Structure formats: C-alpha cells, structure tokens
Amino acid sequence: MEEGPPTILTADDEEFLEELSEYLDILANSTRLRILRLLERRPMDARSLSIETGTSYENTKKHLERLLSAGLVTRRPGLGKETSRGIHPAWEYSPVPGVIQKLQRDLGILSALPPQVRAAGMKDQVSAVRRRIAEELGSPGRILVVLGGEWDQKIIPLSSLAIALGRAEEGRTAGLPGCEILAFPSTYRSLTRISRPHAVISFTGGGCFVEDCGSTGGTYVNGKRIPGREKAAVRDGDLISLSMGEFGASLLFLSDQEPGEREE
Fold first, then answer.
1. Topology of domain 143-254, per CATH?
2. Domains 14-137 and 143-254 equal at CATH topology level
3. For the whole model, what pTM was predicted?
4. Which SS3 state, helix, strand or coil, does residue 120 take?
5. pLDDT, greater one: 170 or 111
6. Where are the domains of the chain?
7. Of 85, 93, 206, 237, which alpha carbon lies 20 to 30 A from 59's?
C-alpha cells in the first residue's frame, strides 16, 4: 500500500475503495502470507516456494505477482535450484524491509478510517484480514504507530507496564520510578519535556490507559481532551494526541484486542 500525502476519504471515492479492497484481498490469502513468512527467512525463487508451500508452480507465480503489485516483495535475477539440466537463471524474491510490521501498521491505520469509509463495508474486511495475519504471521502485541513529524510511521512496541512520554532533554530522564521512557525528538516541540512527562501510558487489569501529567498542550483520545490527572481507557485503533497541531505527536494504539468502537 503506497504512502502519500493525506487526503479526505469518503465512501464515494470509488478509486480509493477499489484499491483498498484489492489490497485487503491480497492479504486475505493464507498461501500468500506463508510465502511472506518464508521469504522473511531467506530470498527464494518461485519453484522453491512452490515446493515449500505445496502449491503448484503456476499458482505460486500468480501469488508472487500479486505480492509484487502490492509492493510487499521485490525480485532480482538469481539462480534457481539445481536440476538434472543444471542450474538456470531465475527470479529471486525477497520481502520489503520490515514487511510484517508494515502490514500490521497498514491494517491498524485502516482500522481507524473515517466512519463514512468504514460504513462502506471495509470494517469487517479489515478485521478479518487482521485476524488472518495474526494467525499466519503472529500478533504484533501492543504497539504505537507514530503519525506525522520526524518519527512518522515509526513503530514502538509497548512491553512495559508503564511508559512515560515526552520531548527529549539532553541528560534528563522522566522522574517517575518504574516507567519506561519514550523521549520524542526535539522537533515535537509542543510536547512537555520528558523530565516532567507529557503523559503516561499504563496497563492494569488487562486494559490500557493514558493519563495527562499536567501538560500545557493537553492529551487527547480520538480528539477528546483528557482532564488533568485522570486516566482514559484506550482501545485498539484509538488515536492518542500529545498536543494538537503541527508540533504535537499523534499515536495510533494497536493491540491484540478487537478494534474498539469509537465515538463518531
């Protein structure tokens, strides 16, 4: 799925919806996902992939063409497996760097599409593909995807029970014991400095919560400001904003849970 400048999406945007449906259809096939998993281990030619997946050579080539068209794999000239006729040139396929994370990020972003696009029938399709990818390629666990700014598209795994968020300060860290520190570059200058964190994300009782720590710019979940020192629940597909505007940070929260219903 090619990245580009942001656009206003509507259910009447037939070209977008057709491309999105095609992308999701490509990802909904178990054989194609197994091919990606095999290529993550090492580059392979179509005949080797055919043997590994138990799929005919012709169908394997068709799967590879669809993965190529989606920008998920690349190919270059190489040598095929040795046969009774010797070794012959063959296309050698490789995944694009970080392809599994790319898929997880793309599908998370699609889960947070505007309501008019989700209403066009894409929500169920996205959820189904996310489940299929989790089954075949593994779950991403809990992650944040940064949207915009210097860290745009950066994926941040959330492995600690508490994470302090703020703008980096040279030689300074967050003054909150037991918190992992996530310090954004200085270009996110609307964020409070990390020594007095902008916000904290925590995990308790099986849920995820975000708390504003008295920042000037505020912390928002799906556009709604969190009152100071109160914890707001965050679910899969929710958007966390640390300050609004050009120099804030927008974070898409993704987890193993089903996408939460957001207020429209």
1. Tumour Suppressor Smad4 (2.60.200)
2. no
3. 0.65
4. helix
5. 170
6. 14-137, 143-254
7. 85
